[in-house]
Amino acid sequence: MKLKEMAHILDGKLRGDPDADVVSVAPIDSAGEGVLAFAASEQYLKTAERSGASCIIVPKGFHVEGKNLIEVENPRLALAKAMEVLYKRERIGPGIEEGAHVAETARVAPSSHIATLAYIGDDTRVGDRTVIYPFAYIGPDAEIGSDCVIHPNVTICSGVILGDRVVVHANAVLGSDGFGYARDGVGHRKIPQVGTVVVEDDVEIGANTAIDRATMGRTRIGRGTKIDNLVHIAHNVTIGSNCLVVAQAGIAGSTEIGENVLIGGQAGLVHHIKIGSRAFIGAQAGVTRSFPADSKISGYPARDHNRSMRGYAALNKLPSLIKKVDKIDKRIEKLEQKGGKTSEDDSR
């Protein structure tokens, strides 16, 4: 693709040869002829100067002598757009492959693709242009929207609802029973989990993630939310639109997450709390109470991020403080052995 065409697609300003070609993308330190790279900030200036890339996507005002540049407002977003153009996903043709199980009562759009050894249960609906890969299990009464991609070994249990353009990666499980039990004096009696899971449009769910069905009602994942691998979302959780949930995070039952919330890796949230919109939860945070909108929290137990950082800074001083206290104790002990007075004696 010519750079003048790429600059137009990226809504950027081209500095350099408009007729130079790019056919792929690569990291800036390994890119060569015909390759598009990107530099997110000025810290990559020296690397950009040495790069063999045919063109570099850069922030506005970024200058590299002798290089073709496309200046944009958001280099990462521009890179995503460029990759969509240069690496178009191969379209899989419509049809049901031999060896797939599709129940007679299922309604599968003619434009969708059901691969060999996929299972589509009774009364399930599959929308237009959706692709379901081998070994995926779609239980009875489930609804899969249009333009979805269900990767191998995904389990979508009965009654689960997916909107349009949802991507579910390998081995994810949607709609398994929530973790609900009641003491009966002898042991733990299971509380039947009769609710469902609703995944709204444009959600992406990572590999090996588990989203439990509600005890009653719905576990809901809001439009545009992206969930990483190995995340657990418990029964009756509500996650708002455009949230990011990073790997190994866990959200306990009936917790409510607002819109545009970022939950860092390995963070844990207890049950029945509320997190306001636009909150930031740091990696490995232990969230034990509710927080309002625009909060920035970290640590265990989670608290205001700046306060948490001050606490960790003070904790780092603890070893030297202990040494100082030990020295003072030894001096006091020597004074006492000699019959000397301490300030404590003087105060009596």
The total number of structural domains is 3
State the distance separating the first and last CA atoms: 88 Å
The CATH class name of the largest domain reads Mainly Beta
Average pLDDT taken over every residue: 93
Number of helices: 6
Q: Strands of the largest sheet, in order across it?
A: 6-9-12-15-18-23-26-29-32-35-37-38
* CATH architectural label of the largest domain: 3 Solenoid
Structural class: alpha/beta
Q: Roughly how much helix do the residues carry, as a percent range?
A: 10-25%
Keywords: Acyltransferase, Lipid A biosynthesis, Lipid biosynthesis, Lipid metabolism, Repeat, Transferase
Enzyme class: transferase
Subunit structure: Homotrimer.
GO molecular function, one term: UDP-3-O-[(3R)-3-hydroxyacyl]-glucosamine N-acyltransferase activity
Please summarize what this structure is.
The protein is α/β, with parallel strands linked by helices and 348 residues long. Helices cover 18% and strands 27% of the residues.
Describe the structure.
With 348 residues, this protein is of the alpha/beta class. It is built from 6 helices and 38 strands. The chain folds into 3 domains: 84 residues, 3-Layer(aba) Sandwich (Udp-n-acetylmuramoylalanyl-d-glutamate--2,6- Diaminopimelate Ligase, Chain: A, domain 1); 212 residues, UDP N-Acetylglucosamine Acyltransferase, domain 1; 32 residues, no CATH class. The strands form 5 sheets. It has a 12-stranded mixed β-sheet with strand order 6-9-12-15-18-23-26-29-32-35-37-38, with helices on one face. Strands 7-10-13-16-19-24-27-30-33-36 form a 10-stranded parallel β-sheet, with no helix packed on it. It is an enzyme of class 2 (transferase).
